[in-house]
Specification:
Blueprint: H1 2-19, H2 25-28, H3 52-55, E1 62-68, E2 74-80, E3 85-91, E4 95-100, E5 105-110, E6 117-119, E7 123-124, E8 129-135, E9 140-142, E10 146-147
Antiparallel strand pairs: 1-2, 2-3, 3-6, 3-7, 4-5, 4-8, 8-9, 8-10
């Protein structure tokens, strides 16, 4: 009789062990860049080289800084908080670049008379210094280095 109750207890414990699972830390905390139903398509460094408009990172974009002279168009440092990525946008007829210090990466684009506005591909920026720059035949300039988290 004693053996039978021990056997029943083991069966019950085995059944409970199969039903109750404790998630690991990797399962319990989702990666914000996992691309889930509400997650971004890329996150920080995984956004390097992607077009923000093509992957949807432009949907929450805002201009963090801009560089220009009073009589010329400007280069804007655009940020996606959701994707933790940055890019440069030219408003006018300039060459623009987005630059990340470390790990180093530069993406460039050029606007012309026909486009008027153009943007670079993205660089991941979570915890890294980034800036946007413009240049043409007569002038050039950059935003300050900015770090975002």
């Amino acid at each position: 009789m004693f053996r039978r109750s021990i056997a029943r207890a083991l069966v019950v414990l085995a059944a409970l062990a199969g039903v109750v699972a404790i998630p690991s830390a990797a399962q319990a905390i989702p990666d914000p860049g996992d691309g889930g139903p509400y997650g971004p398509p890329c996150y920080s460094l995984s956004c390097d080289g992607y077009n923000p408009a093509e992957v949807g990172c432009d949907s929450d974009a805002w201009t963090a800084a801009y560089a220009h002279t009073p009589s010329t168009p400007r280069a804007e440092l655009r940020i996606s908080q959701r994707c933790k990525a940055a890019w440069a946008r030219s408003v006018g007829y300039y060459y623009v670049k987005i630059e990340r210090l470390d790990p180093p990466r530069i993406e460039t684009a050029n606007a012309n008379f026909y486009t008027g506005q153009v943007w670079t591909r993205m660089v991941g920026m979570r915890g890294y210094k980034v800036r946007a720059c413009y240049w043409n035949a007569s002038s050039s300039g950059c935003t300050a280095w900015i770090t975002f988290y």
